[in-house]
């Protein structure tokens, strides 16, 4: 038996109380100069059963899971772990119709621009109503032509849609509201543009004159440039209002002639508010 196959020799004296034998480690080298060191093999490995007969190692995950379940049942009287199978992904039924929501029994606050009752539909209108509503909008062309001639007649042409409103306010709500929109737009596009140009021109002209005086000492030159640019912008904006009036009026005239309830941006909502709660409701 070689030195590698040696086990603990019971004849070797024991040192201490732990039962460990005292071995002699003074080995002599072999002929080739190598020193053979014996390997100590414990008796437990010799007595161990074969690998195929060893007991299975317990699953720590199952043990921890059972401890958690026992703890929950003891203190919470129920397990927080769900024993139900995992939820399956929901698959839509292609044959199921889309649910239609019914808001008739729900108190829904309608936005401001739609909170008033819808006016007459095209099927309820007569040809006369559609024609007069279109004329009220189309009169903006005549107002624009008089405006560019700079004659006082612009005030009279702007009163055309107002006359149509007064004639149909008790006969046709469709014609009356279209005519009232046309009158408001023409007043803003003509009288409003003239007042803006006049007042803005006076203010900016005064500032430009002051800047000219101050420019003699080089202080007013930046203000002179600034106020001059503002005056140019004011003039362009004042001329743009009548042009926008004509464009929107042509769109509204076409819609009214086809029986549609055209609403000018901002103007229609403002008129609705005034007719319901404002001054126009008591005057006209």
Quick rundown:
The chain is mainly alpha-helical. It is built from nine helices and no strands.
Offer a few descriptive terms.
284 residues, mainly alpha, elongated, single chain
Describe the protein's topology.
Elements: H1 43-47, H2 60-75, H3 127-148, H4 153-158, H5 160-168, H6 173-214, H7 221-257, H8 267-277, H9 280-283
Unreliable parts: 4-9, 97-118
Q: How much strand?
A: under 5%
What is the overall number of helices?
9
Encode the helix/strand succession as letters. HHHHHHHHH
What oligomerization state is this entry in? single chain
Coarse shape: elongated
Please give the number of β-strands: 0
Structural notes for this entry:
It is a single chain. With 284 residues, this protein is mainly α. It is built from nine helices and no strands. The chain has helices at 43-47, 60-75, 127-148, 153-158, 160-168, 173-214, 221-257, 267-277, 280-283. It starts with 42 loop residues before the first helix and ends with a helix.
């Amino acid at each position: 038996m070689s030195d590698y196959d040696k086990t603990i020799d019971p004849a070797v004296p024991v040192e201490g109380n732990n039962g460990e034998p005292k071995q002699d480690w003074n080995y002599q080298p072999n002929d080739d100069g190598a020193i053979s060191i014996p390997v100590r093999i414990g008796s437990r490995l010799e007595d161990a059963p074969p690998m195929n007969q060893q007991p299975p190692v317990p699953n720590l995950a199952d043990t921890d899971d059972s401890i958690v379940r026992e703890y929950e049942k003891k203190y919470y009287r129920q397990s927080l772990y769900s024993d139900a199978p995992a939820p399956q992904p929901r698959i839509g039924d292609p044959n199921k119709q889309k649910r239609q929501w019914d808001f008739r029994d729900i108190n829904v606050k309608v936005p401001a621009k739609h909170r008033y009752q819808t006016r007459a539909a095209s099927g309820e209108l007569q040809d006369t109503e559609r024609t007069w509503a279109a004329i009220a909008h189309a009169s903006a062309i005549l107002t624009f032509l008089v405006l560019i001639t700079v004659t006082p007649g612009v005030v009279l042409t702007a009163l055309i849609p107002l006359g149509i409103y007064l004639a149909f306010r008790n006969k046709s709500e469709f014609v009356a509201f279209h005519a009232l929109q046309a009158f408001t737009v023409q007043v803003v596009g003509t009288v409003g543009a003239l007042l803006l140009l006049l007042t803005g021109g006076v203010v900016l002209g005064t500032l430009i004159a002051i800047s000219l005086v101050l420019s003699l000492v080089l202080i007013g030159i930046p203000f002179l440039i600034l106020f001059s640019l503002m005056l140019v912008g004011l003039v362009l904006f004042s001329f743009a209002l009548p042009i926008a009036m004509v464009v929107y009026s042509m769109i509204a005239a076409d819609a009214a002639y086809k029986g549609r309830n055209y609403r000018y941006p901002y103007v229609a909502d403002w008129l609705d508010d005034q007719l319901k709660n404002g001054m126009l409701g008591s005057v006209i």
